């Protein structure tokens, strides 16, 4: 019965996405994401929608569905490949379900600053080669937007791996994230983002990990007030278009939509970077306790086995990523 419901769900999604036309003669494109109304992802999506309408002279209108209305991140990527939605924006670790090598972008502590992350994502030859695999999987990467560095929010204080032992932490379905969190000492619970607040509140998990903007917009600090700035993973969010949608666009409209996507990237990057301290300060006024200097060296030491584990599965790709990110860290302090 569950399988039948899933098939019906996807069939309806695909049928409803065949580039609907509004009463104004515009073609409607669906953009689904999981951020809240007040989040930076939603702000960027709205700017993108305006630019698409402008650059296509009103032929296309992007309808933005926030807050997991059309599905969680994995479902959004699945629907994207099927043509059930036209755009989504999510972490590289979510796209890794279709392009497994993108799991390596979730390796711990390979990027230390925003500027390093921007240079890597804009210039990496290895990453471009991985993104080039996307059209064959049913989607196409248009630009890399920003989510920020991932951090912890827990019910109890967290300063190092010793504090993680015996604690269950929510995360999203990504093996690299699971490997490193387990290496830190956590037990892992996978669940969709909209379920996390209640799960922490009811004690099903002790906390979660996400970028600051996501922590703030979902108010996770209310139920897990210990915010620990581990910055364990740099987590930008590539924006993707369904390949089915892309192939129906004229070359001029393909260029216009790509232009809109890429122009939003600097806006959102600045928004996230500039907002981090402001959002943390606001969380503190609402009762959060921010640990700005946890024992990062202890966390780094705890996750060392993860790189060897990654090599066992991904081979030379691991050293290619580590070499490129090391060069970036050296070039950009």
Characterise the protein shown here.
The protein contains 16 helices and 11 strands. It folds into 2 domains: 186 residues, D-Maltodextrin-Binding Protein, domain 2; 136 residues, D-Maltodextrin-Binding Protein, domain 2. The chain is α/β, with parallel strands linked by helices and 333 residues long. The N terminus is likely disordered. It is globular and about 60 Å long. The protein starts with a helix and ends with a helix. Helix 2 links the parallel strand 1 and strand 2. Helix 5 packs across helix 16, helix 9 packs antiparallel against helix 15 and helix 15 crosses helix 16. The strands form 2 sheets. The chain has a 6-stranded mixed sheet. The protein has a 5-stranded mixed sheet with strand order 2-1-3-10-4, sandwiched between helices.
Question: Which descriptors would you attach to this protein?
Answer:
11 strands, D-Maltodextrin-Binding Protein, domain 2, 2 domains, 333 residues, disordered N terminus, five-stranded mixed beta sheet, alpha/beta
Briefly characterize the structure:
The protein is α/β, with parallel strands linked by helices and 333 residues long. It is 50% helix and 18% strand.
CATH superfamily of the largest domain: Bacterial extracellular solute-binding protein, family 7
Number of strands: 11
Strand order in the largest sheet: 7-6-8-5-9-11
Count of individual domains: 2
Percent of residues in beta strands? Answer: 15-25%
Note poorly predicted spans: 1-18
User: What's the mean pLDDT score?
Assistant: 94
Classification by helices and strands? alpha/beta
Approximate helicity band: 40-55%
Topology as H/E string?
Answer: HEHEHEHHHHEEHEHEHEHEEHHEHHH
Q: Work out the helix count.
A: 16
User: What is the CATH first-level class name of the largest domain?
Assistant: Alpha Beta
User: What is the gyration radius calculated from CA atoms?
Assistant: 20 Å
The CATH architecture of the largest domain: 3-Layer(aba) Sandwich
Shape call:
globular
């Amino acid at each position: 019965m569950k399988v039948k419901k899933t098939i019906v769900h996807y069939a309806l999604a695909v049928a409803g996405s065949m580039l609907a036309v509004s009463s104004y003669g515009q073609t409607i494109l669906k953009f689904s994401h999981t951020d809240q109304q007040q989040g930076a992802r939603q702000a960027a999506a709205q700017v993108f929608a305006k630019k698409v309408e402008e650059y296509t002279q009103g032929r296309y209108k992007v309808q933005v569905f926030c807050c997991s209305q059309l599905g969680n991140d994995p479902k959004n990527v699945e629907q994207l490949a099927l043509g059930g939605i036209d755009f989504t924006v999510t972490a590289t670790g979510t796209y890794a379900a279709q392009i497994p090598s993108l799991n390596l972008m979730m390796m711990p502590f390979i990027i230390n600053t925003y500027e390093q992350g921007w240079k890597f994502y804009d210039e990496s030859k290895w990453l471009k080669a991985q993104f080039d695999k996307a059209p064959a999987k049913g989607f196409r990467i248009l630009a890399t937007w920003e989510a920020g560095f991932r951090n912890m929010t827990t019910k109890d204080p967290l300063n190092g791996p010793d504090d993680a032992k015996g604690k269950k932490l929510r995360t999203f379905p990504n093996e690299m994230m699971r490997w490193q969190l387990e290496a830190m000492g956590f037990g892992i619970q996978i669940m969709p983002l909209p379920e996390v607040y209640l799960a922490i509140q009811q004690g099903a998990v002790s906390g979660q990990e996400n970028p600051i903007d996501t922590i703030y917009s979902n108010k996770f600090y209310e139920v897990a007030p210990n915010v620990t700035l581990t910055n364990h993973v740099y987590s930008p969010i590539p924006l993707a278009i369904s390949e089915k949608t892309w192939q129906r666009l004229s070359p001029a409209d393909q260029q216009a939509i790509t232009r809109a996507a890429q122009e939003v990237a600097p806006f959102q990057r600045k928004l996230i970077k500039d907002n981090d301290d402001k959002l943390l300060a606001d969380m503190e006024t609402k009762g959060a306790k921010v640990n700005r200097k946890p024992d990062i060296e202890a966390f780094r030491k705890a996750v060392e086995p993860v790189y060897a584990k990654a090599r066992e599965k991904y081979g030379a790709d691991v050293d290619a990523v580590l070499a490129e990110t090391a060069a970036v860290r050296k070039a950009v302090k």
